[in-house]
Amino acid sequence: MAALLLRRLAGTHRGRVPLGAAAAAACGGATLFYASSSPTVAHLEETGKAAEQVALNPDKWLEFKLQEKATVSHNSQLFRFSFDPSTKLGLDVASCLITRAPIGEEAEGRRKYVIRPYTPISDPDSKGYFDLLIKVYPDGKMSQYFASLKPGDVVEVKGPIEKLRYNPNMKKQIGMIAGGSGITPMLQVVRAILKNPNDNTQMIYCSKENWIDLPVAILTSRYFIQLINRQLTGGVVLVLYQRTWF
């Protein structure tokens, strides 16, 4: 099923695209949450900008319904959550959101929660949905909770947490090193660069594992073809796609 969903992703990046491939990872700490959140409706109104309705709320836990999920590997699952199709999530590139799930009760009878931050892998400009891919650990309280979800179930979410505010051409070169699912915030930056024809940031992309198929699937066909064309026409983007690079 995951392979089919990955193939379906190779279309346009606009609108409601099919559930895609990527990875989810924790990004920053909760202490950054109130100090550096993305512009909310209130923030935009204060700065005189046109208010844009977003799904996230930095001060309130909101429920998001699971639309569909797929198994990507023996220990990773991909989740798509839906919301009002006329609104964006309200997340900047490489930013995170916080999720929480009930795991029992405290001694006083109050509900007990586990809380984890994740980086959505869907395009921040997408409307009506966001995607997470989560590595499921045998003893992971939150990841096991996600694994138990069925379409129609809900997860409580708050955010955003801004970890890196990326601006086009902010740096001539960007070096990003990640292990496993930690590549997720990097993929957000890569996607933002490739979407902008005026962004001349230089990138070198390589991996020693077959897992490279996963991020490459995000770039196909529109992104990967665009990237190749930019290189062949004198652009500055270079992708090294070799299974045995190291």
UniProtKB/TrEMBL annotation:
Pfam families associated with the record? FAD_binding_6, NAD_binding_1
Which residues belong to any copy of the FAD-binding FR-type domain? 59-167
UniProt-annotated location(s):
Mitochondrion
Q: What class of enzyme is it?
A: oxidoreductase
Tell whether Flavoprotein is among the UniProt keywords. yes
Which Gene Ontology cellular component terms are annotated?
Answer: mitochondrion
Q: Which keywords does the record carry?
A: FAD, Flavoprotein, Mitochondrion, NAD, Oxidoreductase
Indicate which residues the UniProt annotation says bind FAD.
116-118, 133, 135, 141-143, 184
Q: Which cofactor does it need?
A: FAD
> In this entry, which stretches build a coiled coil?
none
Q: What is its EC number?
A: 1.6.2.2
Molecular function GO terms recorded: cytochrome-b5 reductase activity, acting on NADH
Keyword Mitochondrion assigned to the entry: answer is: yes
Q: Which family does it belong to?
A: Belongs to the flavoprotein pyridine nucleotide cytochrome reductase family.
The record ties this protein, via PANTHER family, to: NADH-CYTOCHROME B5 REDUCTASE, NADH-CYTOCHROME B5 REDUCTASE 2
What is the designated name of this protein?
cytochrome-b5 reductase
Q: Which gene encodes it?
A: LOC103649684
